[in-house]
Amino acid sequence: MNGLLTIGEFSRITHLSVKTLRRYHESGLLEPATVDDYSGYRYYATDQVATAQIISRFRSMQMPEREVRAIVTTPDPDARARLITEHLTRLERQLDDTRSAVTALRRLLDPTPPTIEVRRILTEECSVAAISEMVDASEVLGWYSTAMAEIDSAEVQPNGPAGGLYDNELFTEGRGVMTVYVPTATAPSTNRIRPMTLHPTELAVTVHQGPHDDIDVTYGALGVYVETNGLAIAGPVREVYAVGPRDTEDSSLWRTEIGWPVFVASPRTQ
Fold first, then answer.
1. 201 contact partners, CB below 8 Å, separation of at least 6
2. What is the value of pTM for the model shown?
3. 13-46 pLDDT, tens per residue?
4. Is 7 within 8 Å of 41 (Cβ atoms)?
5. In whole angstroms, what is the distance from residue 142 CA to residue 149 CA?
6. Which residue, 33, 66, 129, 164, has most beta carbons within 10 Å?
7. Are 4 and 33 within 8 A, CB to CB?
């Protein structure tokens, strides 16, 4: 047919296999310009080449076919831009997750891993403005951000670095009570924010330097210290964000104090 390309010709031009073009036709993602009623041969127009290349590019970026279909079929440029932005945001999040995993793996596989410094302290009683809720482990980061933003919006006057308390059940059961707080002498009682007193607690404390990509490795090292030194965990883990995301965007400068409540364990029976 004049001005039309066979599926083979279209495949060579677009670098989409014949099998893929047939599948896209069946799914409605990219339909031929015409199909011969007698032979069933598919023919494509030259102005479909750009559309095919757009589809190929988005699919190479792991965009689901339903989203690609929405992009190539919608006439609204704002709607197309919104769909593309949402997918790029997901890709960036996946890339961040991959980078975090690589960072942690490199530290774990280091044949001479750095030792951590642990100190035993007794904290002082402290008044804080806090938000406490039952949280799923998968939602910890998002919940922390929204809760801390709520405390900041209440214009609490801090007299020390922010922190958090993490119940053991968050780690053992995947769901537990989480608390974020800011030390202050005048804690408000508004929305979810409540005054709270942190009582003196004996802690085994270490400092995690830098981004939180591999903070679980530091947790593990601290746990080994607690176990090998005959200590028993007695209460929620406490984190103090001496320098954190609220202070600087440069994650290399972050300093997170991890404190596990401990006491001297009684001798084990055999």
1. 122, 123, 235, 238, 259, 261
2. 0.63
3. 998 899 999 999 998 889 999 998 888 999 999 9
4. yes
5. 11
6. 129
7. yes
- Token match 């059940």: residue? 169
Residue 223 — φ and ψ, nearest 5°? -60, -40
pLDDT in tens, 183-232: 999 999 999 999 999 999 999 999 999 888 788 888 888 988 888 887 87
Q: Give the mean model confidence (pLDDT) for residues 98-112.
A: 71
The position carrying tokens 């401990």 is 262
The strand pairing partners of 30, in sequence order, are: none
CA-to-CA separations, 240 to 145, 156, 207, in angstroms, rounded: 15, 17, 9
Q: What angle do CA 157, 131, 126 make, to 5 degrees?
A: 55
